Amino acid sequence: MTDIVVVFHSGYGHTQRVAQSVADGADAPLLQIDADGNLPSGGWELLAAADAIIMGSPTYMGGVSWQFKKFADASSKVWFVQGWRGKLFAGFTNSSGMNGDKDATLTYLWHFASQHGGLWVPLGIPPSHDKAARRDSLNYVGGYAGLLTTSPTDASPAEMAKGDLETAFAFGEEVARVAALRR
Ligand SMILES: Cc1cc2nc3c(=O)[nH]c(=O)nc-3n(C[C@H](O)[C@H](O)[C@H](O)COP(=O)(O)O)c2cc1C
Q1: CB-CB contact of 78 with 71 (8 Å)
Q2: If you measure from the C-alpha of residue 51 to the centroid of ligand 1, how many angstroms do you get, rounded to a whole number?
Q3: Cα 95 to ligand 1 centroid, rounded to whole Å
């Protein structure tokens, strides 16, 4: 049994749907950063006990949400004692633009994991980038370093692309597979 935790923030529910699919794939609990940028009670303890931490944030103005950043800054207490050193980390982000500067968010998550001495797990799912690719194909958004998903500005969380959610599930499974290799 490997302990994986999915920690995320979502302002309007889209990233939350993605996080749920990732958690389902990884068979992991969800830890939601609230609207004030705080973890629920017991959250820090759950993260301390985890072998792998999967992080998610919407892309807001080309980066993580301020609530996620507040969580990241609060984790400096853990950083001081290198409490998360050697854990596995992985990341995902959702935004409305197909590109939307999601890569800046993912790069931030990778830097954050690296500051904690973490080991990064990439998406591990090939992109669908040939002529046969459709919006609902696996990894249509085409990330490598982490999971990238897209929801149009006028789409509700219920309208998240099926392929993106399936990619999220497969990403969760992939992190679980990699985590199990270390056991
Ligand atoms: C303050 C703010 C900034 C945003 N900045 C970006 C952006 O830089 N790139 C982009 O593609 N979409 C951007 N969006 C759109 C969100 O990424 C998109 O609505 C996403 O689904 C929100 O996720 P959430 O429902 O989990 O909060 C922004 C939305 C908000 C509210």
Answers
A1: no
A2: 30
A3: 5
Its ipTM equals 0.99
Q: Which of 14, 17, 60 to mutate to test the pocket of ligand 1 (most atoms within 8 A of CB)?
A: 60
- Taking alpha carbons only, the member of 118, 8, 113, 104 closest to residue 56 is 8
Residues near ligand 1 with C-beta < 6 Å?
Answer: 10-16, 58-62, 94-97, 100-101, 151, 153
Q: Domain range holding 92?
A: 4-181
Specify the number of domains making up the chain.
1
Instruction: Please state, in angstroms and as integers, the Cα–Cα distance from residue 98 to each residue in 90, 126, 140, 142, 178, following that order.
Output: 20, 17, 10, 10, 28
Q: Closest ligand 1 atom to the C-alpha of 150?
A: 21
pTM as predicted: 0.98
Q: Write out pLDDT tens, residues 27-69.
A: 999 999 999 999 999 999 999 999 999 999 999 999 999 999 9
Q: Which residues of 90-108 are buried (b: 16+ CB within 10 A; e: fewer)?
A: bbbbbbeeeebbbbebbeb
CATH code of the domain covering residue 151: 3.40.50.360
